[in-house]
């Protein structure tokens, strides 16, 4: 995280994601849940002019796990399981979302490849950013 902090200005957002985030922000509440430092996340979001798109940024301890954060978000915001969807790029994201009982969109341009992600049976696999909003429009109610 310290190295990332030094080079955060060099990290590029995946092509097409900025547009998807802005589109989703018009219909849904958006947040970021990550094990990265809140400072790194917020700096990256700010550098990409997306700060106004997110309602919250939460970092979590790997010890306690992401699934507990999802459950906390649902309790705090009075959300049902079918009203929360996580977008992640790793097998552990799929496992955490399933443990919390929420939907999970796995994206193939991150840590794990499509074959590995598919084995864990996410709700949906996005091969490109535009597929995320198309899937959500069909499956989640507006909150």
CATH homologous superfamily label:
HAD superfamily/HAD-like
Question: What fold name stands as the CATH topology?
Answer: Rossmann fold
Binned, the helix content reads 40-55%
Portion of residues in beta strands equals 5-15%
- The global form is globular
Q: Give the averaged pLDDT, no decimals.
A: 90
Strand order of the largest sheet: 3-4-5
Put simply, the count of helices is 7
CATH architecture annotation name:
3-Layer(aba) Sandwich
Helix/strand order, N-terminal first: HHEHEHEHEHEH
Count of spatially separate domains: 1
Give the C-level CATH assignment: Alpha Beta
Topology overview:
Blueprint (H helix, E strand, L loop, with lengths): L1 H6 L9 H9 L5 E4 L3 H10 L8 E4 L6 H12 L7 E4 L2 H10 L2 E5 L6 H6 L4 E3 L3 H10 L4
Parallel strand pairs: 1-2, 3-4, 4-5
């Amino acid at each position: 995280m310290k190295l990332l902090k030094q080079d955060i200005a060099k990290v590029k957002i995946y092509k097409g994601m900025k547009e998807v985030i802005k589109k989703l922000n018009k219909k849904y509440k958006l947040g970021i849940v990550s094990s990265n430092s809140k400072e790194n996340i917020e700096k990256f979001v700010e550098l990409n002019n997306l700060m106004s798109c997110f309602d919250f940024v939460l970092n979590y301890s790997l010890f306690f796990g992401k699934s507990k954060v999802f459950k906390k978000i649902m309790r705090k915001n009075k959300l049902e399981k079918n009203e929360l969807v996580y977008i992640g790029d790793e097998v552990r994201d799929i496992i955490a979302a399933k443990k919390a009982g929420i939907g999970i969109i796995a994206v193939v341009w991150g840590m794990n490849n499509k074959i590995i992600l598919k084995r864990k049976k996410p709700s949906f696999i996005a091969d490109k950013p535009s597929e995320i909003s198309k899937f959500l429009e069909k499956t989640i109610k507006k909150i």
